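Hello forum,

I keep getting stuck at the same step: I have a sequence, I want structure tokens, and every attempt I make locally crashes halfway through. Rather than fight my setup again tonight, could one of you with a working pipeline run this one for me? It's a single chain of 473 residues.
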Amino acid sequence: MKVDFSKLDRAFKPKTVAVVGASKKNNFHWLRNLSEFQGKVYSVQVNPESIEGIKALGIENVTSLLDIPVPLDLVIVTTPRTLAPRILDDCILKEVGAVHFFSSGFGETGQEEGKALERALVEKAERANCHIVGINCRGIFTPQIGLKQIAEQYSGLSGPVGLISQSGGQAMTFSRQAFLQGLTINKSISFGNGIVIQASDFLEYFGQDPEIKVIGLYLEGVKDGRRFFEALKKVSAQKPVVILKGGRTHDGGRAIASHTGSLAIPIAIWNAAVRQSGAVSVPGLEEMIDTLKALLFLPPVEGDRIGVAGGAGGESIAITDILAETGLKVPELTQKSYDELDTFFSLVGGSYRNPIDTDIGPNRRHLERVMMILSDDPNIDLLLLMTRAGKFLYSRDLLEKDIEIAGRIRQKSTKPLIAVLPFVTPEEMQETIEIIPRYQRNGIPVFPTMSRAALALKNTLDYHRFKRVKAVP
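Reply #2:
Ran it on my machine without issues. Output:
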């Protein structure tokens, strides 16, 4: 079936949504998810006891989809699986934009009844060119209009990130963890079994969306590998794509069969195909978030030689080891840089070989000058600022000065700049969450640990190196 992007537009930015099967038993879960939705919500329910609860929520209820007097952009189905074919018939008659089946118990069970019901849905949908999201999935998250997968997600905001996930749990976790790291979603989809619209379709749709600048993918398997990798190659040439593959191990591969019914693919073959397509493979959600952040905020990174300032002497050793073990370099500076540092840098409690110790004491007031010396040094490709949150050894005034200095360096320097802002206590974490967007508005990605920064930088370097090689005729 050929996917109609205009129908997906309706589904991702609906004006009207109907929920079929919201009930007292599930505490009207999907209606509550839509409490901040900016469009019109209808309920379809025949149980009198549940209807009373729906009315108490202030939502109009009807007993049939066909009784809704306006066109429907998105229908969310939460009924038992046996009702799914009949509901799909009504959706086809209503010419809805898309049908999201939260309902499960189909082909992923391995049972013949579930397989037969799934086949019936596919045949009906393909015959009518009806777009099914799912089955067995959390569906769509478009925060700008309050269309959510779970009530705890944010709303009223929109960013540059697109997420495509086979797993609803991974999609919801990503949305909240990424938000804490200063990444806001534009559109997110959890597509579960993907019986009609598959990962390739959503990838092509996000690829042509000018609002989406970077794409994250969580996949357990693909039904048409050739088509998927063709789509991945095409979209990766337009914008960065970062992929987390579920089921990388033998035991993980067995688990995905019962989750979304996907077939396991040997991880060595998968990774090779992803690399050849120009996308980035990562082993976990944290690294996906960090890599997307680096790809989004940094200009194309061309070199792996890093100049570090801001840390303490003991940290310098650990910083250097982490960066080097990741495949990055922390080189010595030119003699010209050392000669300039000699004119003002205090060696009492400090070191300036690279990393340059400007954590506390008299050298901290020279941080901006130190960063510009690193920026001007031909041995350095990229700048890294170590800063801190909290009151231990650091004040809010120093933190504010670091933000100002980093902003000025970013404007004056031609070299990319990142910041590492670790936290220990819950209070420091909250302060960090508030600070991160202020750095990133200036194009300076912030990472909570040096290890996470190093992995993100390495992935970003590999991505841009691949693009440069492919660009050579």
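Confidence is low (pLDDT under 50) at residues 252-261. If your local run keeps crashing, start a new thread with the error log.
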